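hiii so um. not sure if this is the right channel but i have a protein structure encoded as tokens and i wanna go backwards to a sequence. like what aa goes where. can anyone help
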């Protein structure tokens, strides 16, 4: 799945401008859960049975709220990636 497809999928099921603050707080919460998973070393691609609390799950949760926030602000993350790559190429060669 492309990032733009994931962004659209999340937008289709979870787009609520009144939740802007809530999405941000969830992003911070999920970042904390990612920190815990990293600390506990729950690394690698888990199978379905071992997804809960893994780094993979928490990375996805963070990505979900990044996408939800991008949607609220009408930001295309793939386009932003391309623009940022161009900026970094100038900056770092
Ligand atoms: Mg989580």
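sure thing!! here u go:
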């Amino acid at each position: 799945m492309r990032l733009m497809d994931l962004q659209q999928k999340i937008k289709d099921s979870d787009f609520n401008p009144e939740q802007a603050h809530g999405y941000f707080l969830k992003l911070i919460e999920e970042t904390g859960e990612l920190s815990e998973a990293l600390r506990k070393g729950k690394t690698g691609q888990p199978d379905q049975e071992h997804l809960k609390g893994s780094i993979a799950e928490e990375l996805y949760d963070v990505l979900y709220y990044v996408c939800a926030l991008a949607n609220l602000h009408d930001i295309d993350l793939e386009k932003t990636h391309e623009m940022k790559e161009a900026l970094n190429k100038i900056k770092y060669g």
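oh and The two ends are 30 Å apart (CA to CA).
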